[in-house]
Amino acid sequence: MTDEISVLGVECFAHHGVLEHEKRDGQTFVLDLTLGLDTAPAAASDDLRDTVDYGSLVAAVKTAVERDPVDLIETVAQRIADVCLLHDRVEWARITVHKPHAPIRATFSDVTLTITRRREDST
C-alpha cells in the first residue's frame, strides 16, 4: 500500500505543439502531479529527507516542461513522469497535462492527458 502526495494546478509556459504558431507563440500548460510513496518514515521522523520535497520536485518539473519544445503532450507527460520517478521514494507517478488553449475550432474547456508510470516502467 502506498500513500499519495498531490500537487495540482502547476502552471508552465512552454512552446509545445504540432502547429507552427504553438511553437512560436507558446501557451500555458497546467500540470497535476500525484506521487505514490510510503509517507510513514517521514511521519515518524518529521524529517523532510524521509519524503519528497515537493517544492524542489515542482521546480524540476517546470524546468523539464519549459525546455526543448516537442509536438505532443504525450511526450511532455512522459518527461514529467521521468523526473518524478528519479526520486528514490516515489513508487509511481500519475501525471495529468492540461492544455486549455489547444487549437480546436470548437468551444471547449480543456484537453487533458493522464498517464501513470511505475518505477519498473521507467528506464
UniProtKB/TrEMBL annotation:
Catalytic activity as recorded in UniProt: 7,8-dihydroneopterin = 6-hydroxymethyl-7,8-dihydropterin + glycolaldehyde
Q: Which gene encodes it?
A: folB
Q: Which residues form the Dihydroneopterin aldolase/epimerase domain?
A: 5-117
List, in alphabetical order, the Gene Ontology terms for molecular function in this entry. Answer: dihydroneopterin aldolase activity
SUPFAM superfamilies referenced in this protein's UniProt entry, alphabetically? Tetrahydrobiopterin biosynthesis enzymes-like
Query: What EC number(s) has UniProt assigned to this enzyme?
Result: 4.1.2.25
The protein's name in its UniProt record: 7,8-dihydroneopterin aldolase
InterPro entries under this entry?
Answer: Dihydroneopterin_aldolase, FolB_dom, GTP-CH-I_C/QueF
Q: What class of enzyme is it?
A: lyase
Any one GO biological process? folic acid biosynthetic process
Instruction: Print the organism lineage.
Output: Bacteria, Bacillati, Actinomycetota, Actinomycetes, Propionibacteriales
